[in-house]
Design goal:
The chain is α/β, with parallel strands linked by helices. It is built from 11 helices and 8 strands.
């Protein structure tokens, strides 16, 4: 039986944030944040695994999913401002769990909201962008570039489906429709900000790591398989936040949360147990 999830909205300054809320629970809150071009639906399995012990939330970040678009606000600080308001007004004290862009957003929030952050799980955070162009990662540049080119001229859903079919010729129609809907809900300006290396403007990730006071788990894959944390990035995280637990998923791509769900969930569950 599928878990019952309720979708709701929350006004955050200049935009409306769509989010999902899991079944009521007497357990603590956990808030999940997706990566660039994703949406909250990617966390359905994780929310199901945590049901009963945790009160789970998952947001569509601005410019993604069913959340509103912003005129000129796709920096990490803009994403974090939305989520900080969500923490203050909806979730209350919570564990933050983020993947990719969501991980960077969660990091900024945890540093600025120590009272509201009970723990932090960073899943393959692309911290290399702190001092390196996003384009040094060939998979990221390829995917972001394709999404931007696909969406920049406001295509119809049928046109997006056809673009997806050309990119993924072996996918079945159901997979193509799912992919097309997700891509069609991405504001190309959000992807453009990342491609133009404007996303990190004003954000100091080194300072954020040094300000952390909550238990922190960093899960990383392997760069050679498409993950976004290099060995030198892991060393930098350890130097700035020596109390953080850093674990590498062997053979992990940037999507190991979905490709290796049992292994990944076991690590998350072990980390969360004392926080519950």
């Amino acid at each position: 039986m599928a878990m019952l999830l309720a979708e709701k909205t929350f006004p955050a300054g200049d935009t409306l944030i769509n989010y999902a809320e899991g079944p009521e629970s007497e357990g603590p809150a956990i808030l999940m944040l997706h990566g660039m071009t994703g949406d909250w639906l990617g966390f359905r399995d994780l929310m199901s695994r945590l049901a009963g012990d945790w009160r789970s939330y998952a947001c569509d970040l601005r410019g993604h999913g069913k959340s509103g678009r912003a005129r000129d606000g796709y920096r990490l600080l803009d994403y974090a401002r939305d989520i900080r308001q969500f923490m203050a007004n909806v979730s209350g004290p919570t564990v933050l769990l983020g993947h990719s862009l969501g991980a960077l957003t969660a990091l900024i929030c945890a540093a600025e909201e120590p009272v509201l952050t009970r723990g932090l799980v960073l899943i393959d955070p692309p911290v290399y962008v702190r001092n390196t162009p996003v384009g040094i990662h060939p998979g990221v540049e390829d995917w972001f570039g394709w999404v931007y080119e696909t969406m920049k001229d406001n295509p119809t859903l049928d046109e997006v489906v056809e673009a997806c079919r050309l990119r993924e010729p072996d996918a079945d129609e159901g997979e193509l429709q799912t992919m097309a809907v997700r891509v069609s809900r991405v504001d190309p300006a959000a992807v453009g900000a990342a491609l133009g290396d404007r996303m990190g403007e004003g954000a100091d990730m080194d300072a954020a790591l040094r300000k952390l006071r909550c238990p922190t788990l960093v899960l990383r894959g392997e760069w050679k398989y498409g993950a976004c944390v290099r060995d030198e990035d892991a060393d930098w995280i350890h130097a700035a936040a020596p109390a953080a637990l850093i674990v590498q998923i062997r053979g992990g791509t940037h999507g190991f949360l979905w490709e290796k769900p049992d292994e990944t969930f076991a690590l998350i569950k072990e980390f969360l147990q004392p926080l519950a």
